Every structure is written in structure tokens, then in C-alpha cells.
């Protein structure tokens, strides 16, 4: 999985609240919503950002999550 760069971001509380409402409506986290908004803003300015290949969510193939093969 590709590591994401973490950093502190200070936001005006009203801006954070607005982003939270958008995120809730889109069933995203605030972090994912901010990332989406940044990608959209960059695209409008003609800046193309390739998506990194990240691991898919969920269990790896072949795992059932029920019990264990170990005794």
C-alpha cells in the first residue's frame, strides 16, 4: 500500500463544519472529502494528479474471517 503524507491542517471552524456536512452527505470521511475537493480544484486549474495505487478495502482474497486453521 502506498503511504499517505500526513500533516496538520488548521481550518476555520465554519469551514470545517461545511466540509463535515458535505462529507456526511457523500458518506465520506472529512479527510476523504478534503482530498476530493483538492483534486476537483486542481482539475479546474488544469493540473492532473494521478491516483496512487492503494490497497483495496476489505479482507484479502481467500480469507473468510471465520475461525482459524491453527489449533
Kindly state the mean pLDDT as a whole number? 85
- The outline comes out as extended
* Count of distinct strands: 0
The parts where pLDDT drops under 50 for at least 5 residues are none
Strand content: under 5%
Count of helices? 2
Major sheet, described briefly?
A: none
Radius of gyration equals 18 Å
The succession of helices and strands, N to C, reads HH
Helix content: 40-55%
Structure overview:
This protein has 71 residues and is mainly α. The chain has a domain at 13-44. Helix content is 41%, strand content 0%. It is built from 2 helices and no strands. It has helices spanning 13-26, 30-44. Helix 1 (13-26) packs across helix 2 (30-44). The protein is extended, with a radius of gyration of 18 Å.
What does this entry show, briefly?
The chain is mainly alpha-helical and about 70 residues long. The protein has helices at about 15-25, 30-45.
